[in-house]
Amino acid sequence: MGLNFATLAPIGLLIASNVFMTFAWYGHLKFPAMAMWVAVMTSWGIALFEYWLAVPANRIGYGAYTGAELKTIQEVISLSVFVIFAVTILGERLTWNHAVGFALIFGGAFFIFKGPLK
């Protein structure tokens, strides 16, 4: 698998898509006094942009990657974006428990891309 549009564009689009989705799903937590309906509608509006990036990412990438590989890329990016968001926006501290849990997930990603075990 070489570095070309079909292999690189999905990664860039999924990074951008996950930034939008993280703000849609978790950004409202900074505003606990916000009415629930406002939080939901705001999140829904932000998520629209996420779909405009995620759907093309998967359409472009399918063929260069399998469906399982695309989902794995999305999950690894999602966790990476969320960690940055949780620390910088929500002010949360990461612990060793988080590090171990994320390491196990990254280990799972390794096996998805490794191919069939022999």
What does this structure look like?
The chain is mainly α and 118 residues long. The protein contains 4 helices and no strands. The protein is flat and about 55 Å long. It is 75% helix and 0% strand. It starts with a helix and ends with a helix. Helix 1 packs antiparallel against helix 2, helix 1 crosses helix 3 and helix 3 packs antiparallel against helix 4.
* Largest β sheet strand count, sense and barrel closure: none
Shape: flat
Distance between the termini: 21 Å
| Oligomeric grouping of the chains | single chain
Beta-strand residue percentage: under 5%
Mean pLDDT comes to 93
| Extended strand count | 0
Number of helices: 4
Low-confidence stretches: none
Overall structural class, as computed from helix and strand content, comes to mainly alpha
Helix content class: over 70%
What is the N-to-C order of secondary-structure elements (H for helix, E for strand)?
Answer: HHHH
Rounded to the nearest angstrom, the radius of gyration is 16 Å
